[in-house]
Amino acid sequence: MPSYFISPPDDTDWSLAPAEFEARLRERWPDAELRPAPEGSPMAFHFTIDVGGESLDGAYAADGQTLWIETGSEDQMAELAVWFRGQVPEHEELDFADEGLEIEVPLNPSITPEQFLERFAAA
């Protein structure tokens, strides 16, 4: 499975500190497993959460702007993407994309999991 990421499409001063992201992640998924990233990594930590009865693996960047999705189904990615969109101020733009930027899905503030899946399938 390719890796996907969610981040602002353009330069911005916005960020969500890794400690705050961790707190919000644990609030939403209390059983989240977090693992520190190796020293020198651009990631703050890696995580595994249970979404819909199955594991989803991801990572959060130390810069506080990028969420990586390493494994998970489309439904799981939709749930995490919509949740993360809700953690970011509405005026900030966010995109969901694959590493090669062949798939790009703008995440507007009111996006639903169903809309995400439609846009993902069309990308």
In short:
27% of the residues lie in helices and 30% in strands. By secondary structure, the chain is an alpha+beta fold.
List keywords for this structure.
3 helices; 123 residues; alpha+beta; seven-stranded antiparallel sheet; 27% helix
Fraction of residues in helices?
25-40%
* Cα radius of gyration in angstroms: 13 Å
Unreliably modeled segments: none
- Largest sheet features: 7 strands, antiparallel
Per the principal axes of the C-alpha atoms, what is the gross shape? globular
On the 0-100 scale, what is the average pLDDT? 94
Query: Pairing-aware structural class of the strands and helices?
Result: alpha+beta
Lateral arrangement of strands in the main beta sheet:
2-3-4-5-1-6-7
Helices and strands, in order, run as EHEEEEHEEH
Q: How much of the sequence is in beta strands? A: 25-35%
Separate helix tally: 3
Number of strands: 7
What separation lies between the terminal Cα atoms?
Answer: 16 Å
Topology (elements, then pairings):
Elements: E1 4-7, H1 18-28, E2 33-36, E3 43-51, E4 54-61, E5 67-71, H2 74-85, E6 95-98, E7 104-106, H3 113-122
Antiparallel strand pairs: 1-5, 1-6, 2-3, 3-4, 4-5, 6-7
Helix pairs in contact: 2-3
Describe the protein.
The chain is α+β, with helices and mostly antiparallel strands and 123 residues long. Helix content is 27%, strand content 30%. It contains three helices and seven strands. It has helices at residues 18-28, 74-85, 113-122, and strands at 4-7, 33-36, 43-51, 54-61, 67-71, 95-98, 104-106. A seven-stranded antiparallel beta sheet has the order 2-3-4-5-1-6-7.
